[in-house]
Each structure stands twice: as C-alpha cells, then as structure tokens.
Amino acid sequence: MTAHHPCIYLDYAATTPVDPAVIQAMNHCMSFDGSFGNAASVYHPFGWDSAELIDGAKEQVAKLIGAAPSELVFTSGATESINLALKGLALHPDNSKRHIITSATEHKAVLDVCAFLEQKGFSITYLNPDQQGIINKDQVLSAMQDDTLLVSLMHVNNETGVIQNITEIGELCRSKSVLFHVDAAQSAGKLVIDVKHSNIDLLSLSAHKFYGPKGVGALFICRGLPTHLSPMIHGGGHQKGMRSGTLPTQQIVGLGKACEIAMERMDADLNITQAHYDRVVDSVSGLSGVIINGDQDRHYPGILNLSFPGRDSEELMMRLKRFAVSSGSACSSADRKPSHVLLAMGRSADLAHSSLRISFGRYTSEDDVKHLIQALSALFP
Length: 381
What we know:
381 residues; alpha/beta; Aspartate Aminotransferase, domain 1; Aspartate Aminotransferase, domain 2; seven-stranded mixed sheet; three-stranded antiparallel sheet; 11 helices; 14% strand
C-alpha cells in the first residue's frame, strides 16, 4: 500500500501506472533540450531525431508481437485500433464480403463497432462461449459463410481473464481465407504473442494496459493483406496514409519502452501474478457460495472474477472500499446493467450483479494480497 493512498490498487485490468523507466524515456521527448521535433519535418535535425526515436519504438513494438516494424500503425489506443481494423476493412470500396464473426463476450469497442456495421448492412454472428467463457474452433467453423470477411476475437477477456486459443482459430481462418483480427489489449506485454505463428492478420494493443502511457496504441496489419483498409482519420497522409496526424513522439517512445520492459520482465511478472492469484483463489475457495467465473486452466492470472450470490457488487465495493477493484469493465462501469460477459457465459442477471473483478499487476505486494484475503473473509463471518 503506497504512503499517499489509503487505498490498495487492484484494478490493473482497467489501467496500469506508468513504469518509471518509461516516464524517463518520454520526458526526453518533450523539452527543448530533448527530441521534441515533428517527425514529419524532414529538412532539419529536430525532425530527424524524432523520426529516429519513432523508428526505434516501432522495432520494440514489432519485436513484442513477432511482427515487422513496417506492419504497424500507431493509434490513440486499442479502441481506435479496433475501429480502424474492423471499419477500415469492412468499408473499403474493394471489399464485397458482408459477414463478420465475433463473440458475445468481446469488449464494447468491438461490439459497438459491429453494431455500427450492422446498421450499414453487414451481417454479424455473435458466438456464445461455453460456461467457462471458451469459444471453440468448431463454433467458428460452423458460423463461416461464403461471404465471411473477418473473425474478430479477444485474446484475454478483460472481465474474466479467460484465454482464447488464438493460434488454433488463426489456423482455421487462414485455411478458409477468412481474415483474423485479435483484440490483444489485455494480453500484449503480459503473454507471448507471435502474429506469424498464430496466423493473425490484424492485432490491436494499448500501452496503458502494460505500464505505458494512456493515449497511444498500435494496430498490426499483416503485410500482403488481400483486402486494403480505409483510413478512419484523413489529413496529412502520415503513416502511409493509414492514420493522419502529427505523431506524438513521447507517447510512441513510451509505448516502445513499455514493450522492451515487458519482454524482459514477462516471465517474472507472470510468476508473481500467478502466486497472488493462487493465494486469493485458495482463500476464497473455502468461503461459502463464492463462484470463480471463467476457465481456470486457460486463464491469465492477472484477472480474477468472483460472484458472491445474494450480494450486490455495489454493496461489496462499499465494504471493500480500502481496495480499488471493479464490478466489470472500467469502460462501462457507469452502466449499472449486469456484465454482458457473464450473461453470455450463462450466468443469471442476479449472479452477474454480484460479481467483482480483482486484477493484479507488477506493483501488487504480498501484503496487499494478505489484506485483501482478510477483507474478503470478513464479508463471510
């Protein structure tokens, strides 16, 4: 627990603090003494310096996911990357296919774009997972049609931590000449991703989910994609016309540095997170009626979703006010509807209303976990 906060932070799935080394790298790009120039200014050293740093960051991001630097477009975050991937593909004049497959447990950034495309005449199939939150390859296969353009699935679910088998589904999509988009907002920088090995055509990620700054992300676009993307933002033709706007050097450098640190620390971070997760799961397993949501074998340990039957998540959060936790996705927490993810997994509305998401990260201490376990136990005297 930090000295200036009486609250213990356990909401890493919502956002993460920026790593000090990332802050240091970003600071260098903001003052007159550093590399503050516009990377598009090609006639003087100020622009050259920034362009060189951006190229370096591009290599760091590409390395994290097994891509080539030329296959990346920088965006304002995963939400914009998802919009560019889905709308960019669907609305391109050369595209004649009108069917998209996704799942009912996706992030709102995907679901809301799909709803928008439905209004434009596209047909969307929303796959329901099994009770553990898993989408299987056969479901994807049976949903495919002659005019299926794209399958869009998240790698790690933001509410339950369930990991989808993207390699298996990527292989299927490639064999059927259907494009495959992966929302990796919750997995990039935390789990090993290889876009080539997994046959991923498009992948969205966001820096602020793995100790980088808010306001920057990237879209991986596989070289040789059979269908082109229409840009969403028009202007000066930056990034090969894919996303106009002056590149925010400090944000991009921050993203690159966060990727570099994530690669160095991935195993260590995962081991620590797994230890915290196991301790809490062991303790709550003994509490009467508590339900752990989501598959426990195919699971990222940074996210723990618990239902407390007969209790309301708002009341639980009030009782746990020493802890920063959430009742679902931070993006829709102002919305008091039960979690669409848990409903799609077959949970009742009451059970979905009684759920909490606890998420651990790099700075979670053993003491933080001990205090949480004590507090959870006190809810069930």
